[in-house]
Specification:
alpha/beta, PyrdxlP-dep_Trfase_major, Aspartate Aminotransferase, domain 1, pyridoxal phosphate binding, Aspartate Aminotransferase, domain 2, binds pyridoxal-5'-phosphate, 4-stranded mixed β-sheet, 14 helices, about 450 residues, 15 strands
């Protein structure tokens, strides 16, 4: 089970009060009682400071990967403050505000070739996924194309959120282990993992097997009943799984052949994380519906969005869905400020370049280490995948992976343990010096921790 590395940081009085009054997600209550929780007192740029005054270089964007512009960004804070003073919230149904409309228009212009010019706003990633599912089903039924479609195909190891519908599509973290029954009509197919797969195939051979499996699954489920297929452009389970362009091209072809809508869940990948506004751009694949959240506001306000094409939106004569805070003006102001900063500072293309720099540093420093199996990623999202045997790619001892992440924390660098891998996913303001420090901490931590494990 993944465990936030932050929970091993020192605690203080506020931590005890938090234990008395707060509920903590996806972690064993006993672990929180023993190790944390951690009080974070402040943050500036790439650094956070805990309640005891110790600084950490945050190379994992507040663990959730949402913090894409660093801490203490006054331009975003001011944009939100100004908007809240002027008009904080005007309701949801047919009242719109300037920042909301501006955001909807800007989102459609970030990837104009995709034609995703209709937006629906929500408060986070799970709500975005819930909304995408409803759009897909209502479209299939409302357009008359598939009047009985209710099935969704998702993938093994997927993470799509913790609300009931999104959870049914999820196959990763303890969220996926909540008791049945859950949303009916969901089936899951293999996902194109990198480095390891259950059949020992080469990465590309396995990717095409996974894509072709989608066709078989659609036939098996009954094409007239399948409303949509959903996938993360890069999957998070076991760290930054980057599929091939051919995989996504084939998926698109299959969806078109059977009139299945393609939902690409960009909640964690969007807004520069992989060095593009949307990760799907790397694969030249056009979704019918796409979801986003997290870096959309750089973590400064809770906002998510769903984008779709006008022909899909217009086929729905009455969208049977609503959230009180949809299109919240203050949240939209945060997202607008984030877009302006990322465009002005050219942070998205810089993230792509930084990724090349970082990966080269990782490969040079760690590439030959016996415990290191694979190094992969794009832009500001990379993973080092571990093994106990480089020849057989045998799984690493989970305690070793966790131990390396904890050692890096003790060296002042926060990263995230993700199954067999450790992920590095810093804000887009991370400098080459921050990447260099991370590579050095990685090397030192692997050397110091892996010697206690049997590695062939
Ligand atoms: N979809 C993906 C791909 C995610 O990575 C996440 C969260 O990590 C979600 C959906 C759910 O987002 P949220 O936690 O904002 O509800």
């Amino acid at each position: 089970r993944d465990k936030p590395v932050l929970n091993a940081l020192p605690k203080n009085d506020l931590a005890s009060q938090a234990l008395d009054h707060c509920i903590f997600p996806i972690i064993d209550a006993a672990d929180v009682k023993r190790d944390g929780p951690v009080v974070i007192a402040s943050g500036k740029g790439m650094t956070i400071t805990d309640g005891s005054g110790v600084d950490y270089l945050d190379m994992i964007s507040a663990y959730t990967r949402a913090n894409s512009l660093g801490y203490g960004n006054e331009e975003i804070a001011k944009a939100v403050y100004d908007q809240l003073c002027k008009m904080h919230y005007a309701g949801t149904v047919s009242m719109v505000t300037e920042p909301m409309v501006q955001l909807a228009k800007s989102l459609s212009e970030l990837r104009p070739d995709a034609g995703l010019s209709r937006a629906f706003f929500v408060s986070g990633g799970s709500e975005a996924v819930e909304s995408a599912i409803k759009i897909a089903k209502q479209y299939q039924i409302g357009s008359g194309k598939k009047p009985h479609a209710y099935k969704i195909i998702a993938r093994w190891s997927a993470y799509h959120g913790a609300t009931a519908g999104a959870m049914a599509l999820t196959d990763h973290l303890s969220v996926a282990q909540t008791p049945d029954p859950r949303m009916p009509g969901v089936s899951k197919i293999p996902n194109p993992t990198c480095y390891r797969n259950p059949f020992g195939m080469g990465d590309e051979e396995y990717a095409m097997f996974c894509a072709d499996y989608l066709e078989q699954q659609i036939i098996h489920e009954g094409p007239e009943l399948v409303a949509a297929f959903i996938g993360e452009p890069l999957m998070q389970a076991n760290g930054a799984q980057v599929p091939s362009k051919a995989y996504w091209q084939r998926v698109r072809e299959i969806c078109d052949k059977y009139g299945v809508l393609l939902i690409i869940d960009e909640v964690i990948c969007c807004f520069g994380r992989t060095g593009k506004w949307f990760a799907a751009e790397h694969f030249d694949v056009m979704p019918d519906i796409t979801t986003m959240a997290k870096a959309l506001s750089a973590g400064y306000a809770p906002i998510g969005a769903v984008l779709t094409r006008p022909d899909i939106a217009d086929a729905i004569d009455h969208f049977r869905h609503v959230h009180t805070f949809s299109g919240h003006a203050g949240c939209a102001a945060a997202a607008n400020a984030v877009i302006a900063i990322k465009q002005r500072e050219r942070l998205i293309p810089k993230a792509l370049e930084n990724g090349v720099y970082f990966k080269a540093g990782l490969v040079e420093a760690l590439g030959e280490m016996p415990a290191v199996g694979d190094i992969r990623g794009l832009g500001h999202w990379h993973a080092v995948d571990f093994t106990s045997n480089r020849k057989t790619k045998a799984l690493p001892d989970p305690k070793m992976v966790k131990g390396i992440a904890e050692k890096m924390r003790s060296l002042g660098v926060l990263v995230g343990a993700a199954g067999t891998a450790i992920e590095v996913a810093p804000a887009l303001i991370a400098s080459h010096a921050d990447f260099d420090r991370t590579v050095a901490a990685f090397k030192q931590a692997i050397e110091s921790v892996s010697k206690d494990y049997d590695i062939a």
